[in-house]
Lipase
Amino acid sequence: MKTTFYLFSFLILSSFISCNDDESINEIPQMMENSEPLEASFQQNVSYGNDSQQVYDLYLPANRTDEKTKVIILVHGGGWIEGDKADVTGYISLIQQNNPNHAIVNMNYRLAVIPTIPAFPNQFLDLKAVITKLTAERETLQILPEFGLIGLSAGAHISLQYDSVYDTNDQVKFVADIVGPSDFTDPFYADNPNFSTLLNFFTDESQYPPNTNFATALSPALQVSVRTSPTIMFYGNQDELVPLTNGDRLNAALEANSIEHQYTVYDGGHGNWNTIQFADVEAKLSAFIEAHLAID
């Protein structure tokens, strides 16, 4: 089992790995009637569940209100078995610079441990729990519960799947997919003789109908419908972990369902692009945020 586990990790695992165990620091002031405009605020390791991994960092902008301040959620990568919110903190400064009036949530989720703790649907439900908590705290936080999701690698897979399958209230307004696995029926995965077994290890079968084809059910490209949100995608044409065909398949599904989308392919691998390419990601992502999660 250990051999196949490492094979799966090699195929899909992203390289964003680190750790952050800091405790909560700053308290968030509540909006009081007739009070002065709120200052920017930060809260670290906010708990949204009983597991120690179910925490997020919250960045609230100055002058926020529950009528305009929309929320961007960052979802890290790590092949569903590792990674941490600290891995994507670089995106926070970019968003604060280019889209300064948005609130930002940088979340952790329960990591899979084979064979005892599955990834699916736990990680989709963790994203749902974050959105549910933030929505319930709208007045206290002074945010408008409309969301954009930015996911990297496995985090992009989680974000895409959540948007098309779990976002029944249409609170997600866009998804940014950075080298995310999107179709497990792709020969890149399906032709691996161990893949079906490995996918079963990652899945809590009791949470799905009997005889579910998990390769299909867990593939965001195969879940796209008219309900899917506008999507911006970034892939590398030399990616050895997530093949470019996954980007192509997701792009085709979005086109077939007339979903607004952008698709950019860079010369390079699994997000290890050059400075010019990353500047292009930044510019396109910022513009997409302004187009689909505008602060009125």
